[in-house]
Amino acid sequence: MTETLTRGRYSAFVLALLWGLSAVPAQAETCVTDDTDRKVCLARPASRIVALSPGATELVFAAGAGDQVVGVVSFSDYPPEARQRQSVGSHTRLDLETLLALEPDLLVGWVTGNPAEQLERLQGLGLPLYLSEPRRFEDVATSLERLGALAGTRDTARAVADDFRVGIEALRERHRDAAPVRVFYQVWDEPLMTVNDEHLISQAMALCGGDNVFGELPRLVPRISEEAVLGADPEAIVAGGMGEENRDWLDAWERFEELSAVRRDNLFFVPPSLIQRPTPRLLEGTRILCDHLETARGRG
Fold it and tell me: pTM of this prediction?
């Protein structure tokens, strides 16, 4: 009888265990919408992420998922740990063989920077691809939150996103009534290139009270001529350069003494990674830009 009871208890235990296991819900699929309105879904948090632009690399690290990044492209230099990750080529020409060998479970691409045909091929292989193209400050914050959701780092991503929102709003309030300054932003030198009002850099200028002299051009990053800059006669010229401390592009404008920006010594440098990458460090770059434009107002 004792043996019968023991067997009965064991059977009851097994049944209870099986019932308990069956009652545990399956892990819910995580889905987000990327910047092209595509739905990206993962069955489990991404553990092997490849970022296909320097900006994407920064965003993933900032979202708290740096440990999951296994591949990056050239010039992915921030944070410093990113330099230790496997290179998969440049953002303009991906090394697909190396990329696929990393067995990624999430790719973070750049809509206007990565070759469309290579992105299409990666999609055709069935790899989860999140396409990034922030055009507004809020887009930077929501990108952090979406990537945090896909990587299983929601809390970290949300905290960084909220800090970014608070910092941007503080700058917006501080410069809300600032007198306008007509600005030319140089994004490249040969060919000479700028940005229109749809670009995030122009959004930063506007927040600081800057009026983009080429804001109404139809292309996001239009090519222009020196003659066009002379005709626009900006009150301030802002540029990055070929490095984080290279002001050569500004020096080239000093020969045009007829420009208001040159006469007033309103030639300003902002480290390119702080303003040309749509990441949380854009807050720092925008602060620098606002300080420059405040200086320009004082020299008006």
Answer: 0.87
